[in-house]
């Protein structure tokens, strides 16, 4: 460690004076590393990315349908289970989602993608009545920075208001149906 500044009030420096990175550890685990180029990595920071690998077909009309996630690409901290993320610590979390909906019914009043938190819900919606007929596929996406307390949860729902039960949530290989969540502050 190096402490710089030789006068009262001057900047103090903690760092490495050679070509090695600087790491902070807690309980024997590296919590943060600053590379010699200044990049900061936090390998224990809660972060998850999941996507669908099978379709949810003919979703129910006039009810919230929970989106199921079959494939965890990564889950740092093991905070995602049973289609639900549980915040391990209080903080601000960035959530990004994209859902590919197939066979939208133009007779439906609206569709929404809901992010259902322990203490609130967010329901961005759109109306398919603007289309001349049923839509083969539509890919609504969004993001939000949400404040979550430790043990708060969030999951994703889809609702189709009225119309015919014909809409699918696509889960094919390279589909646009995914969810990512990361602690940012």
Account of the 3D structure:
This protein is mainly β. The protein folds into 2 domains: 44 residues, no CATH class; 139 residues, Jelly Rolls (Sandwich), CATH 2.60.120.40. Helices cover 0% and strands 45% of the residues. It is built from no helices and 18 strands. The strands form 4 sheets. Strands 5, 7, 8, 11, 12, 13 and 16 form a 7-stranded antiparallel beta sheet that branches. A 5-stranded antiparallel beta sheet has the order 6-4-18-9-15, with no helix packed on it. A hairpin with a 5-residue loop joins strand 2 and strand 3. It is elongated.
Concise overview:
By secondary structure, the chain is mainly beta. Helix content is 0%, strand content 45%. It has strands spanning 22-26, 29-34, 40-41, 47-51, 65-66, 71-76, 80-81, 84-86, 91-98, 101-104, 110-117, 121-122, 125-126, 135-138, 141-148, 153-161, 168-169, 178-183.
């Amino acid at each position: 460690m190096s402490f710089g500044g030789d006068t009262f009030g001057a900047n103090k420096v903690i760092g490495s004076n050679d070509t090695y990175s600087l790491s902070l550890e807690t309980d024997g685990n590296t919590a943060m590393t600053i590379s010699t180029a200044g990049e900061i990595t936090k390998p224990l920071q809660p972060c998850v990315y999941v996507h669908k690998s099978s379709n949810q077909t003919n979703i129910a009309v006039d009810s919230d349908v929970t989106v199921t996630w079959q494939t965890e690409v990564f889950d740092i901290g093991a905070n995602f289970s049973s289609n639900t993320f549980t915040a391990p610590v209080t903080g601000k979390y960035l959530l990004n989602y994209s859902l590919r909906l197939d066979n939208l019914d133009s007779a439906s009043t609206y569709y929404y993608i809901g992010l259902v938190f322990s203490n609130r819900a967010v329901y961005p919606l759109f109306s398919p009545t603007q289309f001349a007929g049923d839509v083969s596929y539509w890919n609504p996406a969004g993001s939000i920075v949400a404040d979550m307390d430790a043990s708060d949860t969030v999951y994703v729902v889809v609702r189709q208001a009225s119309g015919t039960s014909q809409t699918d949530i696509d889960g094919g290989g390279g589909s646009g149906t995914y969810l990512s969540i990361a602690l940012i502050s």
